[in-house]
Design a protein that fits this description.
alpha/beta; Rossmann fold; 5 strands; about 20% strand
Length: about 150
């Protein structure tokens, strides 16, 4: 069994109503259902958590180090600012994929830099809700490749 921790950062609880022209019309529950549906055919257990609080996300990463084989994270706006979140990911040494609904590299200048990306095995962005599923798929393949 492969265990994956999925973390959604700030404001992602408002998906479906928050700027649907940027983030799409799917809700966070819809995305979580797509992730769960993807893993039903595989031996994968997901633990999914959303928080608007940096410390909660860091605590989840710390707890996850004793359970998870990998981490899929959309840090939201923390992508660009949170050295604490970056340090937590680096500290636990879980293979991590960063996922974003929008293409952060084609948006405002402040969104084009991720302080999280250097401690991740990869980043997938710009494909809406599919960024999560493809990020999970890439993470599972990375783990399988050893």
């Amino acid at each position: 069994m492969t265990n994956i921790l999925v973390l959604h950062g700030p404001n992602l609880n408002l998906l479906g109503v928050r700027q649907p022209e940027v983030y799409g019309k799917m809700t966070l529950d819809d995305i979580n259902q797509e992730l769960t549906k993807f893993t039903k055919q595989q031996k994968v257990e997901l633990r999914i958590q959303q928080s608007n609080h940096e410390g909660d996300l860091i605590d989840a990463i710390h707890v996850g180090r004793n359970w998870a084989d990998g981490l899929l994270i959309n840090p939201g706006a923390f992508t660009h600012t949170s050295y604490a979140l970056r340090d937590a990911i680096a500290s636990v040494a879980l293979p991590t994929v960063e996922a974003h609904l929008s293409n952060i590299h084609a948006r405002e200048a402040f969104r084009r830099h991720s302080v999280i990306a250097p401690v991740c095995v990869g980043q997938i962005c710009g494909f809406g809700w599919r960024s999560y599923v493809w990020g999970l798929q890439a993470l599972l393949q990375h783990l399988a490749d050893g």
